[in-house]
Fold:
Amino acid sequence: MTAPLERPAATPLEVRLGMGSCGIANGAEPVWEALRSGAREAGREGVVKAVGCGGSCHREPLVEVVAGEDRSLYTHVTPEMVPVILRRHVVPRGWPARLRWAARRLRDPEEPRPESGPRSLGARIVLENCGEIDPRSLEEYRRRGGYAALEACLDPARRDGVIATLTESGLRGRGGAGFPTGRKWALARRQPAPKYVVCNGDEGDPGAFMDRLVLESDPHRVVEGLAIAALAVGAEEGFFYIRSEYPQAVRRIAEALRQAEAGGFLGDDVRGSGERLRLAVREGAGAFVCGEETALIASLEGRRGMPRLRPPYPVESGFRGRPTVVNNVETLANVPWILRHGAAAFARLGSAGSKGTKVFALAGKVRHGGLVEVAMGITVARIVEELGGGVAPGRRFKAVLLGGPSGGCLPAELAHTPVDFEALARTGAIMGSGGLVVLDDRDCMVDIARYFLRFTCGESCGKCTFCRIGTRRMLEILDRLCEGEGRQGDLEALAELADRVGRTSLCGLGQTAPNPVLTALRYFRDEFEAHLHERRCPAGKCAALVTYTINDRCIGCTLCAQACPVDAIAYRPYEIHEIDDAACVRCDACREACLDDAVEVH
Amino acid sequence: MSARRGPGRWLRPLAAVSGGLVVVLTALLIADGVAERLRVARESDRFEALEQAVLSDASRAEELAGEREVQTARTMARQERNRAFAWTLLAASAAFLAAVEGGRLLGAPGAARPASAGPQGEALVQLRPPRAVAAGPPAAAGAEPELAFVDEVVAARGASREAAIPILQALQNHYRYLPEAALRRVCELTESTPAEIAGVASFYARFRRTPVGAHLVQVCQGTACHVAGSGPVLDELRRRLEIPPGSDSDVGLRFTLDPVNCLGCCSLAPVMMVDDRVAGRLTPTSACQALAAAEAGP
Ligand SMILES: Cc1cc2nc3c(=O)[nH]c(=O)nc-3n(C[C@H](O)[C@H](O)[C@H](O)COP(=O)(O)O)c2cc1C
Ligand code: FES
Structure:
């Protein structure tokens, strides 16, 4: 209990607070102020440090106290808890202050209990530094071996080995398609200069935030990855294309580029080697299709983000008609690690065809949302159950959505599928970029299919007829089903359209747009049929097909009447309430408000 | 003392006067009670003595009747007076309590304001009455925007086609939307043709061609937020703000609702961003409260 007073002052102590945009959204700013003023009071301002997010977004604000090997993690920290935490670990400067703190510790409330550390299964490669280092400090990144790989690449003799090492490691693109990165770079290397490299930080999959977190929490790692890519393929100029919904990521990368330039890792003469390297940030403007590499390049050129036919692939003709390598954020974040630890260390992890780790953004009905990093080959069920803590008590895990609008659903029965490009593709879903949205028995698969189609229909750039109009026809059918107005033959028409859209579209957006519908039809056909033939939504989600009623468990507490936004429930204390079905807009507010499970949905 | 205006001004003297009255009246009543005891003892002695005297001397019956008369009248008068005192005392206590409580509610020092409104807290959630437009920066509808900024941006970014998107982004950050006149100026200054600029400005979802309300509310409609119920949140906001169908802003141009695809805070779903603050784990009610708070200012 008295350990802090006895600890030799030489042990470096660090109090870290997660200040990624998720942390800030969870209220980290007042906690930061409290930490700063507490540390100032102790005369040890240097001990507090703002780090990025380690992935445990569901328990932020997170304070971690690190003293050598000792780590204590405090979750859901409030400004009031801060002095107690500080008094527990920090030894103030000077005897008067020490005595004062010791006296106050006697009166401290029950001390907050530290919890266990970050979550991963297998290994931590991409997230190695996330939540550990100050993302705004080049020094700290270097202390952890940062930029060593880049410096090694400056030696022309070793540069040739980079592509071989990557090929040997088996690294495949994490942007969705899984193209071997070594091969892509080798293709680009053979092309004539000038060439370009681009980091794809568009992260279009709604419900995924792996790239945001890495860009915010460990920006130098991605900068180093892109710089190595440029050196390896012989490019002198590169871009970060980051979506505008991620302002903090844009700021962090811009700052990291300035620092790297000041440190000589970028610029006209990289570390005295004579190499030229210029990297810049460009913000997206809110178009999903710009995640597709040819559309992204069109957008970089200042045009409408329309994909074009491939081949020629960007590695032959891309930005300004020159050879261009486009890589995903996570792909690039793997590169420095592989070069530092060797291809074999990377290839030891994972399955036969998929090496290394994959970062997933766990969201949806899972209890512990956030980022997790798992070695490839681990099953989806383990991710959901062990890292995500499963679904809420009383609910049933139904399916996961993988790969967003381009992916599909994986039903709970198939959750034993390993995380592996080929194994997942066989189920009809895809690995995707890492979005993993968990659904429970209250989610309707027809509604989900409609949601994704509405998304792709809205984001279609309009170039291909089937993608533009076919998705609209599909959406109309799904809208009808959800409204209870399905017609005979709708399901067949849906499957037929899905097939056509997939086969006649030029880019990945259209080719993959039918996936969510096809997988939902394949695994949950009974739900589609219930909507069509019985005009019933088994999950109780589709507004037009359900009615809200109040059963006799109602104790007349009036909470539902207060919650109702359209006054469809008359206010009658101590009586069983009633819902006026004609006025009800099915907003679910009454069911959420009810403490006695008295609101039923049929 | 903060509440020195309006009715608050009278509270203090009222409390003083009524408080004083309460003290005085209570004292009077107690004093009267004591005096009464002494008097009753004295008078009943006298009355008994007279009764005894009448038994032996009938001529003193007159005197006894007179004494009875006097004593009865005195008691009646006293009761009358005390009743008046009691009523006044009650009224004064009520006035005193009201003055003190009223002072607390109006925010006298040390007094807590009523806790933030509950689910039915209409005062906080009420978003309806359209007030005059709180004009956002230079985006006031109708007014011609100043265009010097366009020249600055183009000078900084260059006139090539490749710079078109960064230029439009800078303009949108400045004007909060893309005014027609500014776009025309961009065409004049850069290599881009009007068709190209119009094409780019209409292709990307972040570019707005109409003025934006005083507060921009980005409501996430990503997958995680969808399954967590962002649809009802958006519906409720539209209903409360009485946004006409086909529009994204309320009539008073106070709020503009902008559905976006993912704000990257999916573990807080459903999420929205009011100006540059993220609000998470929303319900329809808490979303309305967040807007009301944004309108009330920081
Ligand atoms: C519609 C569509 C959207 C895409 N969105 C993204 C994205 O948001 N981020 C990304 O890295 N790749 C995205 N891609 C994949 C890219 O086209 C490209 O394959 C990838 O950036 C290559 O990087 P990698 O080899 O490192 O995976 C998308 C593809 C399509 C067809
Ligand atoms: S889905 Fe809403 S923040 Fe990601």
